[in-house]
Amino acid sequence: MRRVDPRPLLGEPLPLDLLNTHWIERGELQDLLETVDGVAIWLASSSIPAAERPAAGEELRLRLCETREAIQAVAEHPASVDARSAFNAILARGHRRRRLAEAPQPGAGGRSLSTVVAEPGWEVPWTIADTYLDLLDRSADRIRRCQHPECVLWYLDTSKSGNRRWCSMSICGNRAKAARHYRRQAD
Ligand SMILES: [Zn+2]
Distance from the CA of 8 to the center of ligand 1, in angstroms? Predict the structure, then answer.
């Protein structure tokens, strides 16, 4: 039986989606990756193609938690030498092998890419770290943490203005609006 993904924000790019396995509910930090069942829920709702999704297990859970911690550290402290080296330690666990495919691939430009990891089981965590690197290349200044003080969610600001402040208007945007309203009433 598959439980519904309980998280408030879904659909962000994969590395941010991994960070969003942490969220706050009724004032308490929740963690979808606390259990192997939670890992299965996360895999099912992630953007990882179904054919590439590994089975959820305790080892994968620990590796995902380690990767999440490393990404979160560089996202929060981009200049931290420790954060950068912990992130690089994850990246050092694998590489992308680029080859010319054995036969021409329609629409794929003849290229064949595969992920090679030193230790089996790191494919998905490594890919997430690698994807974060791509995200930094393309849109480092659009990786944001929700500005609500009681929110820990991350998103890629794809708005035209680049002024998005909240994980979602319906959650934190409205909470902030209500708080401003309340303050005005109290003045
Ligand atoms: Zn928020």
Answer: 9
Tell which residue, 144, 181, 185, 186, has the closest CA to residue 161. Answer: 144
Ligand 1 centroid–CA 134 distance in Å is 24
Per the CB < 8 A criterion, the answer to whether 157 and 13 are in contact is no
Please state, as a whole number, how many other Cβ atoms lie within 10 Å of the Cβ of residue 101. 12
Predicted confidence pLDDT, tens digits, the chain (187 residues) = 557 999 999 999 999 999 999 999 999 999 999 999 999 999 999 999 999 999 999 999 999 999 999 999 999 999 999 999 999 999 999 999 998 888 877 776 777 888 999 999 999 999 999 999 999 999 999 999 999 999 999 999 999 999 999 999 888 988 878 888 777 777 6
Tokens 């934190």 sit on residue: 172
The values of phi and psi at residue 23, to 5°, are: -155, 170
Q: Which of 155, 163, 171 is nearest to 75 (CA)?
A: 155
Q: Which residue ranges form the domains of the chain, and what is each CATH number?
A: 14-98+111-186 (1.10.3300.10)
Centroid of ligand 1 to alpha carbon of 145 (angstroms): 8
Q: Is 35 helix (H, G, I), strand (E, B) or coil?
A: coil
